[in-house]
Amino acid sequence: MFAHSWRLAPVHSGKNTIGLMSGVGTVGEHLIEDPEEAATFLTRDAGWTWKKITKGSYLTEFIDHGSVIAMVNTMEKSKGFKYTLDQGTTLLDCLASDDDLMMANIKTHPSGSSESALMYGFRSDDDKGFIIHADFTKSFSSPCKAEDYEPFIPSNSDPSLPGLHCINGESKRFMRRKQNVRCFVPESGLPPPVSTPCPCTHEDYECDECYYRTKEGLCAPRNNTNCVQQKIEATSCVGGYKSVSKGYVMVAGTKCNLKDTSSVNLIPTPVKCTDSGMGRSPLTVVGLTLLGIVLAVLLVAGLLFIIGKTP
Questions:
Q1: Whole-number pLDDT of residue 22
Q2: Is the pTM of this model over 0.90?
């Protein structure tokens, strides 16, 4: 798939378009940036598998949460556009003009909930601009019901494999319209997603400061001078305990459940200090020093006051 190309349409999705993306590419060992070789593809599982829906480079727009997918060819002359009401199973043509048109773009409302789209460009014969308003409100006769939705769970691994599929430490279950039902998503929108925390795995950790990732994927300590000094300070006692790093810290934003019995626990371990006088933190030493100075000043001031009051 072409992520960015000055000639061909890029990979595209839309807000509230669950799991759906379109892209232009070629089938083979490498990409061929040639409009005659290119085809437009659609994925329903967030990019794990792709299906060719038409030959040529088409810009797509997802309308009504993906219930309608409209497409325009920006590389060749046309008299209209293509669209599908079943996410690529059937592709339909819409004649919009008797004249040859060069499409420039297609847009719908940013929310993705609108049932219409705007297409614009210029006419081939006189270069005059045009705008086409495509309204799909009559494409479906009834709103979607509970049985018209299916679950979709994003995954960072093959979704066809069994097991819990997690991203950022949670499994998020979305509901979306089934591919081959004929209904529109009501104004209330799609049912809300349901999140379930996952057990923490190695993917929820990154190497702690002064550790590096080995070829085996483990975190090993760096033994340079700065890191040795930081390690000494980091293991200083605070409140009778010191924090001993295992070489890992939690990835920012992960929502994994560390209390799950199957979780991998790699967070720093609090260890009770064997000698409370050793390894005091620099802050504790400074605090005690200042306290001693203040007490000494008060003691001297008190003695001077008493001497001054003595007859």
A1: 94
A2: no
